[in-house]
Amino acid sequence: MAKKPKKQQSGGTPATVALTAAGTAFTVHSYDHDPASASYGEEAAEALGVSPDRVFKTLVADVDGTLTVAVVPVAGSLDLKALASAVGGKRAAMADPAAAERTTGYVRGGISPLGQRKRLRTVVDASAQSHETICISAGRRGLEVELSPTDLASLTEAVFAEIGRG
Fold this sequence. Notes:
25% of the residues lie in helices and 28% in strands. The chain is α+β, with helices and mostly antiparallel strands. The strands form 3 sheets. A 5-stranded mixed sheet has the order 5-2-3-6-9. The chain has a 3-stranded antiparallel sheet with strand order 1-8-7. It has a two-stranded antiparallel ribbon with strand order 4-10.
């Protein structure tokens, strides 16, 4: 069941701290995460009562030896070839989960494109631009942040490209 959105509280995650420090407008949404859930993103969309095309998942891929963040709608999947092309690479594969966690400072299912331990190049699916706001992980399972896709791209120095499928 969806919970009422909460305003940023003191402390927060590295993602919400980064948003606050940048003076970016955002809303935090929390819900009770079910550890048995098959899809973190689809669980978030359902729990928050938000269309799955407005909830985006953060995936970490290895593009020609460089970890790269892909932000795509939870209802679809990542087109690895399109991601590689978007950053001028030749080959992409999903990153080793341990490497993704170690590099970003977040756990799988809670990786946010914001406030990462090491800033990785980031590509946001172009479909995000058709929404006034999107929801992304706030850095913890059961916690999402809603913000404008333009602000997300600005804060992560991301490019928009058609990297999502389905």
